[in-house]
Amino acid sequence: MNFFRGFLTSRLFFRIMRISIIFNIVFTACLQLSAHALNAQHINETKVVLALNNESLLDAIHKIETSTPFIFLFNKTDVSDIHGLYLSKSTHTVQEILEELLRGRNITFRQINKKIVLRKVEKNILSTLHMGQQTMISGSVVDSVGGGIAGVAVRVVSKPQFTVTDREGRFELQGIPITDRLQFQILGYAEKVVPATTTMRVVLHMTQEAIEEVYVNTGYQKLPRERSAGSFAQPDMELFDQRTGSMNVLQRLDGLIPGLTVNNARGTDQYQIRGISSVGVYTPSSLTPYAGTDRSPLVVVDGVPVNSINDVNPQDVESINVLKDATATSIWGSRASNGVIVISTKKGRNSGKIQVDYNMFYNFMGKPDLSYFPVLNSRQFITAATEIFDINNTSWATVSQPAYSVSPGVAPHEQILFDGDPTRGIISVAQRDYLLDSLSGLDNRRQLEELFYRNALLSNHTLSLRGGQEKYRFYGSLSYTDDRNTQPKNRNNTYKVNLRQDYSPHERINLYLVTDLTNRRNASKPILTTGSNFLPYQMFADESGNPIAMPWLYRISSLQQDYETRSGISLDYVPLLEGEYGYNDSDYLSARVNSGLRIKLLEGLDFEGIYGWNRGVTNTTGYLSDRSYTVRNMAASFATGSKVDNTIRYYMPASGGRYTTGNTLQTNWTIRNQLNYNKAWLDRVHQLTALAGFEQSESTSRGNTNTVWGYHDQMLTAIPLDYATLGAGIANPVMLYNSTRSIWNYAMDYQNTENTARFRSVYANISYTFLERYSINTSWRWDQSSLFGIDKASQNRPVWSIGGRYDIAKEYFLTDVKWINQLAVRATYGLTGTAPSPGTAASKDIIASSTTSSSFPEGAYRIAIPANRGLTWESTRTINFGTDFGFFNNRVIGSIDIYRRRTSDLLGNRPANPFSGYTTIVGNLGDLENKGIELGLRVIPVQYRDFQWRIVLNASYNKNKITKLSTSLTNPTGNSIISNNAYGGFFEGYAAYAIFAYRYEGLDGMGDPQIRLSDGSISKALNVAKPEDMVFMGTYQPKWAGGFTNGFQYRSIGLNINVIGNLGHVMRRDVNRKYNGNRMNPSAGSISVGNEHADFANRWKNPGDEAHTDIPRWVGNVSASTRDRWVNYYMFADRNVVDASFIKLRDITLSYALPVAPIKRVGIFAMSVQAQMGNIMLWKANAYNIDPEYITPLTGLRTQLSGQHTFSVGTNITF
User: Fold this and answer.
1) Second label for 1204, Cα 20 to 30 Å away, from 65, 716, 1146, 1167?
2) Beta strands 153-156 and 181-185: pairing type?
3) Sequence-separated contacts (24+) of 1156-1159 with Cβ below 8 Å
4) Which residue stretches of the chain have pLDDT < 70?
5) 863 pairs with which residues across the strands?
6) What are the TonB-dependent receptor plug domain coordinates in residue numbering (predicted)?
7) How far from 893 is each of 153, 301, 884, CA to CA, in Å?
8) What sign results for the dihedral spanned by CA atoms 414, 416, 421, 425?
9) Are 876 and 833 in contact (CB under 8 A)?
10) Do 113 and 75 reside in the same domain of the chain?
11) Last residue of some domain: 77, 102, 120?
12) What per-residue confidence (pLDDT) applies to 47?
């Protein structure tokens, strides 16, 4: 193992990678052939599994000979000129294959014992003569989802003339009577005869036998779908490829997979398969507070798990399999409780020549909608600010004190109110009213849109090449992605190089190597974010375009002048200029290497070895010059004395900027060795597929940050700090916030972290099928994890599953029921598990350094995570029943699954022994249960000549309940439930992601909120509610999720309409949060807050208002407000929890495939163009204009609404 680690970090390894990339970007195309000889001795009984891709008849004969007992006899000159044969991978008899390959070629065949004799028949020249109008016919042959079908025999009905479609399904025929008909034939698809037209697009549908040959990829093996009892799902790849709203692979799956929920609301689990299986460990700094155990699906690329799905280019994806139940996922062991998404990237094909593809799109996404936030306009704001202003509650003497200046200074409207107060008499009442009215007429929204936002744009260009021969095949791509967000001067560019090489030096040996490099570069300016929540009248530039200073955001002018005089440092603050005084850059480089070796040891027995390695490095730099306010303010804050009498002393550099560097390194490796066995006996009466293997993996993450001050970017020098003095505290600083100021109040200048997790596993999987209709699957895996310390009993986790499948449609009593093409039932049961994330829990103490306390300025150690010797794995048991069906010549195909998942020994924060010094400890704290049903359905209601209408429906329902939970809540109250609710919403006896609320009874005669208690009484007393008084409102994770697609195809024109929906969940709505104080102003230094919710204008003001409003009154005195009432009764009221259900028209795509003849003249083999509109219609269950994808459902705070009503154009060109 040390050898591997040393080799992977050596220069030799990277040289090999460079050589491989530089000298092997020759891209090619691929074919797979697998043939199994059975015991039958006649060509109409002997079956083989065969696939051809642009090959010659001689190649096909050779492969049949090596896979069967037959020998071919023929005249080589009769067959040597037959090339360009295509055949989809399928199982057929030798006779069926020969009939297909020789159809229309004037060659007959005959079996004599074990010999097959081929003989050419001379053409009758007169039979080719034809009278009537003739023309050239061109077109394409595609499958039901629009993919080209290669190798289709296109025959003219009236005369012996034919051709074969190429690798993209294209064909041409010269001299065809316009009144004639064409016949389309290929094994695996139903034959079709249609009238000839000059430009044609013909759709063929798979036969029942071909459908049964669909394979499922688990990441460890490929298994025919009809032999697997597991619950799998595969997306419509045509719809997947068309989506241009995101370069994230998982985001493109929205609505395409039954059971996969995509929830884009902030603070939620974005991707879930079949609900939740872990509550996690509470980490309050995270947007998903319970993230200690990963709740997202495991993502596997080319057989190896990956950490970042963002490194995968969707244009390189060939297929996706989503594994959902225990039988499907258990092969992945303890990491598969949340489901597995298996992604296979594109491979080469041995087509004999290079195919070049160019794919691009531009997605125009516009600016964010600032009107989405319901806030006061300028006139409403000034009116409200005037109404609540009371100099008796907050006097000028108070706000002008240095100790008070930790809050912001006095906003312009407040300065006018203070100056116009009769007790000060700076200006008259008339002047005050005039100035306030002037502010009421200002509106900064246009400046916000023009100065702080730009039109977002997402574009991608991917150039791929493929080609090769039988022994060596390539697929490679180069891609560039430009992701411009709405903030000006920001850049986010991604460059990718992907290369897959397959080499077969011997018929028994296959090797492959995948090398993938990703470089993502981000550059941004430290521009402050703002929006409608800032003061609506405050402009950022004057009429001439000059930036406006806003020093009042930090302190009043008199304090500013005093600090500037004594420190000698300007403390002016101009938001528009701050972005020019620094930068933030990041450079991410990721290398992914997957290699594999497969050796055929014996008939049916293979050895397979896989090695996967991934390394991602992110380097970040942040710089603020000494012109930035942050650096100037820091220098003045740690200055003593005075510039006036030359006693000034700077403990932080007064010249030079702040320079911060960061480095994160993520390294993963996986080694897997396994034996595969695949055998069929007695004409497939018995079929057995088995594997057994050993796997070991390691994941290591390291990170550090370092900050220096007094940095000069030209000289690359910095000034060292006296940390001992700064840590002890600076007495009597210029800015008198406190008597002393310490650097420990600020972020550490240096931090370093490291986490390592190791897994070791042995596993086995067996699938047996009897009479091609009775199948049983079983798997077993034994995982060991280093996350549990050295306790062997805790380290080990056995994982297993068992399942069965019964193909009813293959029974003799249904053979005459022609409308039933597929009908099978499935049942599975198994166990999976989950380990805690690195650094969150262990059976031994986790020690960390501590340098953030002034008590230990030289550093110390602390117990970061206390030991829990009783810590064990989470365990998830899943039972699944399913059915697969296909009716009416497979024009109706689908599956239904019903499941139940029970998770025990949940990992999370539980109460600790109080004598340990900790209130909580990470451990096993409870159980939960999931139940659900899923439907995947594809229907073709209309298929008439060149027109097809296709419907795809994916729908799922999930209901969960936490049946047991040990929490740290002691003597819970209604308020503690609300507070804990804000950290994830997990309560025993309720669904996960629960939202609770007070039973609101409106306002009393004084304008104070009231609630109804469980005994029926009404109260407004402070925090009087108990748990039994609270109302369970529902869950903020959707219960129903899915997608609905209508696809229309007429010849070369396609239209796809995709609708997605999340239903059955709830959210808090945004409400007024201003109830006391006499100031309406932003936070110190913030231009993103300051305005108030529009509901503030509708608050209770006078007795009797309670009849038409339920918004509590404003109280000027903060102490009185918090002493006499509980405004949380309103903010967290049941009437402020609303239905979050929504249905959105995610995208509409119009595509057109250009005719072959004109583009062929300019060297283009095929070309299609598309236009797409995204997020153009929304139905929502709430009446408050809330888009449930743009809100934090637990808090009710809206997020910036962007990416709506987008428009994109794209093209795909093949040379």
Assistant:
1) 1167
2) antiparallel
3) 1156/138, 1156/139, 1156/140, 1156/170, 1156/172, 1157/136, 1157/138, 1157/172
4) 1-41, 112-113, 121-134, 144-147, 167, 178, 187-188, 207-216, 223, 281-293, 351-352, 402-408, 737-739, 744-749, 786-797, 836-860, 968-970, 980-984, 1083-1085
5) 847
6) 242-340
7) 27, 28, 8
8) positive
9) yes
10) yes
11) 120
12) 82
Q: Please report, for the chain, how many H helices and E strands are present, in that order.
A: 23, 61
| pLDDT tens digits for range 803-851 | 999 999 888 888 788 899 889 999 999 988 777 666 566 666 666 666 5
- For position 109, which CATH number holds? 3.55.50.30
Q: How many CB atoms lie within 10 A of CB 675?
A: 14
The pLDDT score that the predictor gives to residue 126 is 38
Number of Cβ within 10 Å of residue 74's Cβ equals 18
- The region that residue 268 occupies, defined by phi over 0 for left and psi between -120 and 50 for alpha, beta otherwise, is beta
Structure tokens at 216: 């499922």
8 A C-beta contact, residue 1132 and residue 1068: yes
pLDDT tens string 546-577: 999 998 888 888 888 889 999 999 999 999 99
Expressed in angstroms, the distance from the first to the final Cα of the chain is 45
Which of these, 1019, 1010, 1132, lies nearest to 1072 by C-alpha position? 1132
**Which residue is associated with the tokens 């795909």?**
1212
Residue 644, CB-side half-sphere exposure with 13 Å CA sphere: 8
Sheet with 162-164: strands ordered across: 162-164, 153-156, 181-185, 192-195
* Separation CA 365–CA 1095 (nearest Å): 30
User: Are residues 112 and 174 part of one domain?
Assistant: no
Q: Tokens for 1081?
A: 């102003």
- Which residues are 995's β-sheet partners? 1034
Q: Is residue 193 domain-shared with residue 64, that is, in the same domain?
A: no
Place of tokens 């986490």: 755
- Residue 711 belongs to a domain: no
- Residue 194 shares a structural domain with residue 89: no
Task: Supply the CATH number for residue 195's domain.
Answer: 2.60.40.1120
Q: Compute the distance between CA of residue 482 and CA of residue 460 in angstroms, rounded to an integer.
A: 6
Report whether 239 contacts 1044 (CB < 8 A).
no
Closest CA to 463 of 493, 439, 433, 496: 496
Asked if residue 79 and residue 199 are part of one domain, the reply reads: no
- Looking at the structure, tell me whether residues 392 and 436 fall in a common domain: yes
Helix H or strand E segment including 609:
strand 605-624
In a domain, residue 183? The reply is yes
Q: DSSP label at 58?
A: H
**CA nearest to 132, candidates 113, 159, 109:** 159
Handedness of CA 987, 990, 994, 996 (dihedral sign): negative
Tell the burial category of 129 from Cβ atoms under 10 Å away from its Cβ (0-12, 13-18, 19+).
exposed
pLDDT at 125: 41
The answer to whether 778 and 803 are in contact (CB under 8 A) is yes
Same domain, 448 and 545: yes
Name the CA radius of gyration of the chain, rounded. 35
- Residue 97's domain comprises 47-120
Kindly tell me the sign of the dihedral angle through the C-alpha atoms of 504, 506, 510, 514: negative
998 within domain boundaries? no
| Residue 21 confidence (pLDDT) | 39
Residue 84 Cα to chain centre, angstroms: 41
pTM, two decimal places: 0.81
d(CA 189, CA 19): 44
Distance CA 1142, CA 848 (A): 46
pLDDT of residue 289: 36
Assigned domain for 683 exists: no
Domain count, the chain: 3
Contact yes or no for 1067/1193 (Cβ under 8 A): yes
Same structural domain for residues 114 and 173?
A: no
Q: What are the φ and ψ backbone dihedral angles of 529, each rounded to 5 degrees? A: -80, 145
